[in-house]
Specification:
29% of the residues are buried. The protein is of the alpha+beta class. The strands form 3 sheets. It has a 7-stranded antiparallel sheet with strand order 1-2-6-7-5-4-3.
């Protein structure tokens, strides 16, 4: 255990940065990193730990044992992402480990105070939960690594998955063998989230509040990750599940990939889509329009 890791101080900044060292021989929360010690920076650990404990109900022990147990090795998670970033998943399936670009890491660090405030004011938010942001040197390169709570934290088998942006331009799978389907596939599959009028109203409100937050953060290109699972005898769906009216189906939803800022490059890309006649349907557009379009998509407009 690193001696330079102090106990959380309620007065520290939400984006406080700490240096942590894993010794060459490993320690109680991490296996050996190899022949030399591994030192890395952790950003906002006090506030992200608070979100993990209070919003997700995950203890320090469960978190560290799931990620630091050599008998439960981390596995590669298949993704259709074009970013080239590393995408991993804990053996238990509860935690997603992903590298992000330096721009995304900086965006998240700047966003942390308001992100923390959002969770305090809206504990049932649909925003994806970050549990860690780390910066380290690996093979001469600086890596920015995030740990997130999986939207599909359940013992049930997810039978259908959708990545929904609210955009329809080129938003379909290239092959029916792809496990994560997109907006046009969702429409084609005629999926209906059957949770009843009261729960549907609650979901729409949660989504509206979360997308308003992202709109004000000047980000776009985020997705609603939707998973559908059939209930199984003797298994609970989990604390974040929305259950169908008949009780036979569970739905899991969360907003992910919300670190793409609308800067000069994205503004130029948006203009190109407009010139080509796809300004309304293309994924890249101004944050207010992006948020409203996704809200309209969710409401079925």
């Amino acid at each position: 255990r690193s001696s330079n890791v102090a106990a959380p101080d309620p007065g520290v900044s939400d984006a406080e940065r700490r240096s942590i060292t894993v010794p060459a021989g490993g320690c109680w929360f991490a296996p050996s990193p190899g022949g030399t010690a591994l030192t890395f920076d952790s950003v906002g650990c006090a506030v992200l730990n608070k979100i993990r404990r209070e919003s997700a109900g995950i203890s320090d022990y469960d978190f560290l044992s799931s990620l630091g147990d050599p008998d439960q090795p981390i596995k590669v998670f298949e993704t259709n992402s074009k970013s080239g970033e590393i995408f991993l998943m804990s053996a238990c399936g509860r935690f997603i480990i992903k590298t992000v670009s330096v721009h995304e890491a900086e965006k998240l660090e700047k966003l942390l105070p308001k992100y923390h405030q959002h969770f305090q004011e809206h504990p049932s938010t649909l925003l994806g939960r970050f549990f860690g942001i780390f910066c380290l040197e690996y093979e001469g390169k600086k890596l920015h690594v995030t740990i997130m709570h999986s939207v599909f934290d359940t013992k049930l088998k997810i039978t259908r998955m959708y990545d929904l942006k609210g955009s329809t331009h080129n938003r379909k799978v290239k092959s029916e063998s792809e496990s994560v389907r997109k907006d046009l596939d969702f429409i084609k599959d005629d999926i209906f989230v059957d949770v009843g009028e009261e729960k549907a109203k609650e979901l729409l409100e949660h989504h509206a509040v979360a997308t308003k937050f992202l709109e004000e953060a000047n980000v776009m290109d985020y997705s609603i990750l939707l998973g559908v699972a059939e209930m199984e005898k003797g298994k609970e769906a989990g604390r974040d599940a929305y259950t169908s009216q008949g009780g036979s189906t569970a739905y899991f939803l969360g907003l992910i990939d919300f670190l793409v800022g609308f800067g000069f490059r994205k503004a130029a890309e948006s203009q190109l889509h407009k010139v080509s006649g796809h300004g309304v349907t293309a994924s890249v557009t101004e944050p207010p329009k992006y948020a409203q379009r996704q809200r309209d998509f969710v409401r079925g407009k």
